Amino acid sequence: MEDFATFDFASEGFSPRRVYCKGTGPAIVILHELPGLIPECVDLARRIADAGFTVYLPLLFGEPNQPFSMLKMAGNMVELCISQEFYCFARYQSSPITDWLRALCRKAHADCKGRGVGVIGMCLTGGFVLSLMADPTVIAPVTSQPSLPFGFTADAKATLGVYSDELEKAQARAAQGVPLLALRYSEDALCPPQKFAALRQVFGDTPEVIEDSSELCWRRGKGLETLEINSGPGNPFEIPASSHAVLTLGYQEAGHPAYRVFQRVVAFLKEQHFQ
Question: Which of 27, 52, 131, 218 is deepest in the core (most CB within 10 A)?
């Protein structure tokens, strides 16, 4: 990761964490997934930086730029389940690490001359975006395959793992013109359809159908925009039903619906920063 600058960032109550930084332009904070800061996530940061943004890539746990490993991911899961900073099963509580991330967003906002901050959270960190969205510095929130709280019950699948007051603030900001962009593969069991149903309940339905095809279901409303890539039986790109990580492990080059979704993410970030 020699092409990234680095710094250690601490906020009250939290030990310093390493942050990787790259690019110029408005700030985008990218939160890595449960597998860790894998090369596919680093590549996402490079693509976002190349699109004209300053990327902040905090290392939340593990080692940077290590290949995906099921064994390492299982180890991360065990570590996080006993951590005091991550709440993996709490249905109505925000993870304490979001306080540190909020402070990082405010630093990024100041570093980039107060132009507002975009945030991309994925899987484990997807729901963190809802907590951060409550902060006025965040103007371009993207949640990709939000998975917390983990669980198999209907209640767990239909909750978002965020304090109610933070969710209400995020809802109010969406109503004021800071919409949420949400992404998932249609058959993803880790981000079940109940999660998106819960988002629609909070942020309003998405009545305007941009596209509903064999490849992609794309809907947009005032407070919420959703893109769901078809990974069901017979989909034209033979995308496995187990597909999960839209922007990293599931990312593909031009011609694939995952590439189109990435393009929409970049366009969304630019719309919110430059409108």
Answer: 27
pLDDT tens profile 112-149 = 998 899 999 999 999 999 999 999 999 999 999 999 99
The H or E element containing residue 172 is: helix 164-175
- Helix and strand totals (H; E) in the chain: 8, 10
Structure tokens at 238: 């033979």
Q: Which two tokens stand for residue 109?
A: 């906002």
This prediction has a pTM of: 0.96
Q: Which amino acid is at 184?
A: R
What values do phi and psi take at 105, rounded to 5? -60, -40
- Torsion, Cα 142 32 48 46, to 10 degrees, reads -170
CATH class of 5-274: alpha beta
**Within 10 Å of residue 220's Cβ, how many Cβ atoms?**
15
Domain ranges of the chain: 5-274
Please report the beta strands in the chain, taking only residues with DSSP state E, as ranges in sequence order: 5-9, 17-23, 27-31, 54-58, 117-122, 138-144, 180-185, 208-212, 216-220, 224-229
